[in-house]
Specification:
By secondary structure, the protein is an alpha+beta fold. It contains four helices and eleven strands; from the N terminus they run H-E-H-E-E-H-E-E-E-H-E-E-E-E-E. It folds into three domains: about 70 residues, Alpha-Beta Plaits, CATH 3.30.70; about 70 residues, Alpha-Beta Plaits; about 30 residues, no CATH class. Helices cover about 30% and strands about 25% of the residues. The radius of gyration is 30 Å and the shape is flat.
């Protein structure tokens, strides 16, 4: 191959490498720009707002039509509203402006009557996980102190009733409550690495009627046997 052909080949290679480099840079710039725009335009997380009455009268004793009119007068049309077990209300808003308006609200009024309330955002529920085979000689305080930097806010050991005794015995399984909604795949306790699995709670079961979804204190059913379904213990 003569010198002219070699020079032509080297020029062609240089041109190809230059085009590839320019293409990579343009992709990086466009990705960075889109990332910045996405971060700027990222919507604010809308948290449910909990309304609690300042007086001794709980909000569930008020007329629901009156409460609905008061909420619409305060912030306009809202997404939904439901009643909590303690008598407070939890309201979901459509926008950040509605959420801010409701958080600054101290009185629900429709022009005739008024109810003084306090509003606070509901804390986001973090992920819950379980780790297994944690040595029993490690106290839960040490576990929490070690895992607090890994977004763990509370820990507790599971307990079980052994066959030999009626007392509850601590197990090697540990429950972890995280501050984030994403469940990590693993956590590091000291020099030991533990895989985290999702915590699935046991369903509620009534010991009176043996149905699911409620407890005996709120049961309206009849007494039923767990073996034959007869109306006896």
């Amino acid at each position: 191959m003569d010198d002219d052909a070699l020079n032509t080949l080297e020029f062609y290679r240089d041109a190809q490498s230059f085009r590839a480099l320019r293409k990579r840079k343009s992709k990086n710039y466009s990705a960075a720009g889109s990332g910045e725009s996405c971060s700027k335009n990222k919507p604010v997380e809308l948290l449910p707002v909990i309304l609690e009455s300042k007086s001794g009268r709980v909000l569930k004793t008020y007329n629901p039509v009156y409460i609905h009119k008061c909420l619409e007068k305060c912030m306009g049309s809202y997404k939904d509203c439901s009643l909590l077990s303690n008598g407070n209300l939890i309201v979901n808003c459509w926008s950040e402006q509605q959420m801010t308006t409701l958080l600054n609200c101290t009185k629900l009024t429709d022009g005739v009557a008024a109810a003084e309330v306090t509003a606070c955002p509901r804390k986001p529920i973090g992920a819950r996980g379980v780790i297994y085979n944690v040595p029993l000689d490690v106290p839960t305080d040490d576990i929490l102190a070690c895992l607090s930097v890994q977004w763990v806010q509370s820990v507790r050991r599971f307990r079980y009733k052994s066959k030999d005794s009626s007392e509850m015995t601590e197990s090697k399984s540990v429950f972890l409550q995280f501050t984030t909604a994403d469940l990590p795949g693993e956590v590091k306790l000291g020099y030991m690495l533990f895989r985290v699995k999702q915590y699935i709670p046991r369903p509620l079961r009534c010991i009176k009627c043996n149905r699911y979804g409620h407890v005996a204190n709120h049961c309206r059913g009849k007494l039923r046997c767990s073996i034959c379904s007869g109306e006896h213990k």
